[in-house]
Specification:
Layout (H helix, E strand, L loop, with lengths): L1 E5 L2 E7 L17 E5 L10 H7 L4 E5 L18 H14 L5 E7 L14 E9 L8 H10 L5 H7 L4 H4 L15 H13 L1 H13 L4 H9 L6 E6 L7 H10 L3 E6 L6 H4 L1 H14 L10
Parallel strand pairs: 3-4, 3-5, 5-6, 6-7, 7-8
Antiparallel strand pairs: 1-2, 2-4
Helix pairs in contact: 1-11, 3-4, 6-7
Length: about 300
């Protein structure tokens, strides 16, 4: 994992270009850049199967934002509301001087909050089975987390249930977010920071408490102003993020389209990384960016 110091603290991220020391192909053409953003409680490993599918043709970065899957606590007093975390995502793009980004987010809806605010580096946007409109907090899982964050000690108690493979696998828990059974060692990797580090739980609770229930509904009007290609990509069997929400979301985006990934629920990168990767390839190929040549 790489690190970068931002205004609210240091975050970790992965970047496939550290493997090659270049972001250009043999003919000097700069490779397209994809930024894949995990959701609540997930780290970069959620996206790894998709990264492996795409890394040969794209520069792929995965920042771990401070929404539960992070391992580096943020500065006390940092704005960790959804809008504050969205500002960190924009700062990440700025600090790495990324251009023409295809921004992809799963589960959390934070990427929507950059529209019309700080999205000049984004060429394409992909919203993949995520919080949107009036579906926040989403499902029984989201509502339970949001409620527990307001009661001292309750969030830790709720998260401790993930130590049990049976409880973590329940449909009303993490198991309801995926069609395939999630290996328990992966659950413990994802939620280990929240289970073991009080500072990470503090950050997570601040995020949950600081995000208004109408956050994404209020952001919906700005989506109508996004004048670039957008893909709303939904797990065909999603229960926590109903497909009807995805279809409504796509209708708001002037250049948006809706597509479903088969054999997937909310965690599309886990359930069907191949299907997700192919959808991203088709979307990018259908909306090519201007060719950029490297320096002679």
């Amino acid at each position: 994992m790489l690190t970068i110091a931002l205004s609210s603290g240091t975050i970790e991220y992965t970047d496939t270009d550290t493997d090659t020391d270049t972001d250009t192909d043999a003919d000097g053409t700069v490779r397209e850049t994809l930024v894949l953003v995990p959701g609540l409680g997930f780290d970069a490993s959620l996206w790894q199967p998709v990264v492996d599918e795409l890394r040969s043709d794209f520069r792929v970065l995965v920042p771990v934002l401070p929404i539960g899957g992070h391992r580096l606590p943020k500065d006390p007093g940092a704005d960790l509301s959804a809008h504050g975390v969205a500002a960190l995502l924009a700062e990440f793009l700025d600090r790495l001087d990324l251009h023409g980004v295809t921004l992809v987010q799963n589960d959390a809806g934070i990427a929507q909050l950059l529209v019309g605010v700080h999205d000049e580096r984004i060429a394409r946007r992909v919203l993949a089975s995520c919080e949107a409109l009036d579906n926040y907090p989403p499902g029984l899982q989201g509502k339970a987390l949001h409620t527990a964050s307001k009661i001292p000690g309750a969030l830790h108690l709720l998260l401790r249930s993930f130590r049990s493979p049976f409880r973590a696998g329940m449909r009303t828990s993490l198991g309801g977010m995926a069609k395939r059974p999630i290996p328990h060692d992966l659950v413990l990797r994802w939620y280990g920071p929240l289970l073991t580090d009080p500072a990470i739980r503090r950050d997570f609770a601040v995020f949950l408490r600081g995000t208004r229930k109408d956050t994404y509904l209020r952001a919906a009007d700005r989506l109508r102003s996004f004048d670039r290609p957008a893909l709303v990509l939904w797990g065909a069997e999603d229960r926590m993020m109903p497909p009807r929400t995805g279809r409504r979301l796509a209708e708001l985006l002037p250049y948006g389209r809706y597509e479903e990934v088969p054999d997937a629920r909310t965690l599309i990168p886990f359930d069907n990384p191949r299907g997700l990767s192919l959808a991203l390839r088709r979307f990018i190929a259908a909306h090519p960016a201007p060719v950029v040549r490297g320096a002679v």
